[in-house]
Amino acid sequence: MDKAAAEIASNVTAVKGDVAKPDDLDRLYQTVAAKKGKLDILFANAGIADPVPTPNVTAEHYDKTFGVNARGVFFTVQKALPLMKDGGSIIVNGSGACQKGIPMYSTYSATKAALRSFVRIGPLS
Question: Is 105 a catalytic residue?
Fold first, then answer.
């Protein structure tokens, strides 16, 4: 990460974390608050897709996929709200999989449908 940050140039801070871990998100936003104060834009783009047919989905697979794709994105947005500038933008990246039946991606599709509903309700509701 440090190498990537150096290649991007100045005004970059690398923060390693896992969106499925609330403590990592807290550390991320503490860093943002300390270095920048506020956010203009949040782009929530977490997603993993591991093709598994529904009969073979395990609790571990389900929890991992929902932990990153739905729970991780939800709390990424929620924890960013206090740092958002007035007029700032939150962009949540979903997938057309929430509307299509894609074989072997039932868990992934369900997480993206959860995001679609979350965005429709609005983060302040």
Answer: no
